[in-house]
Fold this sequence. Notes:
Elements: H1 2-24, H2 26-61, E1 72-76, E2 79-83, H3 85-123, H4 131-145
Helix pairs in contact: 2-3
Amino acid sequence: xxxxxxxxxxxxxxxxxxxxxxxxxxxxxxxxxxxxxxxxxxxxxxxxxxxxxxxxxxxxxxxxxxxxxxxxxxxxxxxxxxxxxxxxxxxxxxxxxxxxxxxxxxxxxxxxxxxxxxxxxxxxxxxxxxxxxxxxxxxxxxxxxxxxx
Length: 149
């Protein structure tokens, strides 16, 4: 019985040790920071769409109501169903604004990496071969140029 308890204790300790290593490493903190920034960014995009883009769409389409409030009232027997298609349209616009902004940030980072990589390559001196390899290549070339026979 003591052996079984010890095995369980060792496994539990191993699990907590592994979790501690994961939590202390930068990956967990980077992920947490990304989630917080993502939530803040989402709030900004929601406000942009709800307070600026959607009213402008309403103005352009001549609708006096907020697009988010557009709906269809369906009566099915005694039941009434309210389809809020305006809220769905606003959610789609939110998605496209977020997707476009993430794409733009990705493109900027990609271009910056390419430029830094090219600059980094120029800064690194050309790879020189070891003397032994150069000598072997020279011997190979001499043997190729030698007439046969």
